[in-house]
Amino acid sequence: MRQVSFGGTVPSLVLLTLAGCVVQPPHCTQDSDCRAGASCDTQHFSPGVCFERSSSSASSGPSTIGSSSAIGASSSGSSGGPSDSSAIGTSSSSSSGSSYSTSASGTTTATSTETAASSGAVSSNSSMGGTGGSTSVASVSVGSSAGASSGTSGSGSAVSSGSTGAGPPVISMFTATPNAITAGDSSLLSWTVAGATQVTLDPGSIAVAGSSYSVSPSITTTYVLTASNNSGTVSSSVVMTVYPVDNVTVYPSIASMNTEGVRDFVANSSGGVTWSVDEAPNGGAIDATGYYTAPSEAGVFHVRATSSVNPLVSKTAVVSVYFSDAGTLDYEFGYEGTVSIRGPDDAGFIASSVLVDPNHLLLIVGSAPGSQQGLAVRFFLDGGLDSTFGAPATPGYALLGSGTPVRPAPLGFGYAVPMKPSSGKAYMYDQISIFGSVNRIDLSSVLPTQGVFTDSAPGSQGYGSVFISGYGGNAYVASVQLDGGLNRQFGDGGIVSISVNSPVYIAPRSDWGVVAGTAFGSWYDWQISPGGATSSLAPVFVQPNAYAGPLTSFMGGRFVFSALQGSGTQASSVLGMLSPDGGLDPSFGDGGLLALPDMPKSAPISLFTDDRGEIESAWSSSGCAVAQYLADGQPDPAFGGGTVVMESLPGEVLTTCGGLVQGKLGETLGVANCADGSAILFAIWH
Fold first, then answer.
1. Whole-angstrom Cα Rg for the chain
2. CA-to-CA distance for 192 and 202, rounded, in angstroms?
3. How many angstroms separate the Cα of 349 from the Cα of each of 372, 377, 415?
4. What is the pLDDT, as a whole number, of residue 602?
5. Which residues have C-beta within 8 Å of that of residue 302, sequence separation ≥ 6?
6. What is the dihedral of CA 450, 452, 455, 461, to 10 degrees?
7. Which of 150, 156, 172, 581 falls between 20 and 30 A from 495, CA-CA?
8. What letter would DSSP give residue 9?
């Protein structure tokens, strides 16, 4: 007799084909509702279900009875006796619903068990072997599954496969591309989800379809993807980092340098920048201020400025580094190393001095040929004319008062330019704004002696004042404020008098005092404190007919001065170094002095020290002679043997020098005057 047992409530069936019977619609209430050979089972089903008997397999060998999706099928038995082993098959699938099994009388030899993970229901099948054949019984789990179970019996196998009951959804991937953006940009959220009836995205509880969604948050946001079905809910999260908007610019964007050269890069950004070299360490090094040192090998490298508030925003400067002998023109500057200066309307220009300001702009002052019109012109450090400077009618040029400008100094957001007239006494100086507008300052009412202006130097760290030196009866140093008045805290009402009638050259001290150098028979230096207190030392350079030249600051609180000793055919130039206490520094030259018998018989017209501890000076003599010295006073052999004499440059014959400065491009920038009434700006590797 065939027996059917149930483990729980059986849901409605559409069609299940079993080993030994077929469960089929329609439902029935009595046997007559079923076709011939079938009977209506109302004891276990409501409404009843028709069961149709199918023939059993009885053979002398193993027999497999029935096979269908989600039904365990087994083979067992052998001719003449029961099966000799049993096996248990276990499935990892999740299933829901109930199971039932059928059995036949005989000896049970094998059992297969499937556990439904979501509901705990168990389905089992038994197979019985007997003399003359075998009977297999299959078990059915009613419901759905995503997996299959398998088992073995005797020397054969039993496999169960198909859909079992559904478990919670699976989120196998949830990403953001990119996972960091600038505010206003967008990112794509992508996911892979299986087995979900609903997928939502938070924040916002957004019901999403497909496998991606574009977002554009304004602040850093954690996105949560939630997938659910009847069996449960799962979630996954991803963090989207949002940085504020920033813009970075770098100047210059293209630069050329000699190997081991140095220069400054400048960046503009609302939140500041951090500097790096893409090819570091082989591409050189740059510090936090943008000061770049080129490598010892030639190549093309990239200096990068990255926003401090948004690491996604950066700009690069392309730096070409190549080998070039010191003392030769930098052919990447201007046109083959030079820039012509011809004045407004090509009227000509005679250069008298040059300055690199705190903003790394190059200011050249001079005058128009054949007139007393003072002029100032400004360039970028790559040799390009700064057309934002000056009046609209004369872009790049500012028109000064009458006279010849002496060495300018930075003052506030602009420049102080003392003017030296062709005759008479000097008491006027020009203030030039950063944009090139000019304000004339009359000092006739405050200077005790209106003599000849000689020099100027920065007067405070914020450039809120300037020192101006001059002579006429007595020499003096005056401290002039931004508004044109004297700094009454300095010296005697803003002036320190020096009891000699000689040109006075000045240089700022590290404490924002000033050192003055003058010559009257012998060379003296005057140490002047920020308050104007003066200490006059014994002459540091004793030589009849000494004539003072430019003075400049040097490393370690020292100063380098220049002078002319002797007269006539016996005259010669000399450089000296002062120690911080004002005396001669014996480590320089011969006891602090360096005689230059081969240089022109005049004091240098320009003198500066670079940040590598080298000293550069320029003389005017049938052109422009530029010399470079090491810190101990020895000529730099790498710099053209120590001296480079330029009598001509491409297309120009030179007559006199107009000054030298360090150009921050790994070279020396100089200006010289030409025979045709123009000037020429040049760049030399040093």
1. 48
2. 16
3. 12, 10, 19
4. 76
5. 277, 278, 279, 283, 316, 317, 318, 319
6. 10
7. 581
8. P
Longest dimension (CA), the chain: 147
Single out the residue of 497, 558, 505, 492 nearest to residue 531, CA to CA.
492
- Whether residue 139 contacts residue 125, with contact meaning beta carbons closer than 8 Å, is answered with yes
Name the residue with tokens 């995503």.
146
**pLDDT score for 171:** 96
For 599, which DSSP code?
A: S
For residue 130, which of 203, 56, 191, 182 has the smallest C-alpha distance? 56
Scan for tokens 């397999």, then name that residue.
57
Which of 126, 170, 125 shows the shortest CA–CA distance to 147?
170
Q: What does the angle CA 582 – CA 448 – CA 481 come to, to the nearest 5 degrees?
A: 70
Give DSSP secondary structure letters for 107-136: EEEEEEEEE-TTT--EEEEEEEEETTEEEE
β-pair partners for 376: 365, 398
Q: What is the mean pLDDT for each group of 10 consecutive residues in the chain (686 residues)?
A: 40 38 59 79 76 47 38 38 39 37 35 35 37 36 33 36 63 96 96 95 93 96 96 96 95 83 89 95 94 91 96 94 78 81 92 89 92 90 90 92 90 90 73 92 75 86 88 87 89 88 88 86 83 78 75 90 80 87 89 86 83 84 85 87 80 86 77 92 84
For residue 673, give the H/E element and its range.
strand 667-674
- What pTM was estimated for this model as a whole? 0.56
Distance from C-alpha of 619 to C-alpha of 609, rounded to nearest angstrom = 15
pLDDT of amino acid 182: 96
**What is the Cα–Cα distance from 446 to 213, expressed in whole angstroms?**
76
21-28: Cβ within 8 A, 24+ apart: 21/51, 21/52, 21/53, 21/54, 21/102, 22/51, 22/52, 22/54, 23/49, 23/50, 23/51, 24/49, 24/50, 24/52, 25/49, 26/50
What are 419's two structure tokens?
Answer: 């003017």
Q: Say if CB 547 and CB 529 are below 8 A apart.
A: no
Contact assessment for residue 629 and residue 594, using Cβ atoms and an 8 Å cutoff: yes
